[in-house]
Amino acid sequence: MTPSPVPQDATPAAPRTAVGAKDAARQGVLSAVRPDPQAGDGRTPVAWLHIVAPPSWSVTPSGRSWCRCGWDRTAIGRAAVQQLIEQHKQHRDACPLLHPQEGSKAA
Ligand SMILES: [Zn+2]
Q1: Domain range annotation of the chain
Q2: Beta-ladder partners of 47
Q3: Ligand 1 center to residue 97 CA distance, Å?
Q4: pLDDT at 56
Q5: How far is ligand 1, taken at its centre, from the CA of residue 14, in Å?
Q6: pLDDT truncated to tens, each residue of the chain (107 aa)?
Q7: Which residues surround ligand 1, an ion (CB under 5 A)?
Q8: pTM above the 0.70 mark?
Q9: How remote is the CA of residue 45 from the centroid of ligand 1, in Å?
Q10: Could you tell me the sign of the dihedral formed by the alpha carbons of 40, 41, 44, 46, in that order?
């Protein structure tokens, strides 16, 4: 039984580790990049309407209507919120994301 003082296969594993980390990083990037499923085809939500209207008349209701196209309105007060709801409905009919115009027929 003669003890071997130095192991023969003591190759440094640094390059291997570096390659492995690089590979893992690339996979991480690939898995992080996903195609946007909300392409605005009319079925996915584009515009949102959020109303906060407590049942108590003593509390002032407020609301917000916003859209991916940049539409963003807020309303405070019962009458203003009702107007906001109407504006939101009208915007859904006129939103360029929900109704993409092909070409420039606007004129
Ligand atoms: Zn819009």
Answers
A1: 47-94
A2: 67
A3: 6
A4: 84
A5: 53
A6: 666 666 666 555 555 545 555 554 454 544 444 454 444 454 667 899 999 988 887 889 999 999 999 999 999 999 999 999 999 999 999 999 888 877 655 55
A7: 67, 69, 71, 95
A8: no
A9: 10
A10: positive
Residue with the two structure tokens 């515009």: 47
Instruction: Give me ligand 1 centre to Cα 90, in Å.
Output: 10
Are 62 and 50 in contact by the 8 Å Cβ rule? The answer is no
The pLDDT of residue 31: 45
Q: Give me the pLDDT at residue 85, please.
A: 96
Under 8 Å between Cβ of 51 and 63: yes
- Record the tokens describing residue 39, joined without a space: 């392409």
CA R_g for the chain: 29
DSSP string computed for 21-88: HHHHHHHHHHHH----S----SSS--EEEEEE--S-TTSPPEEEEEETTS-EEEEESHHHHHHHHHHH
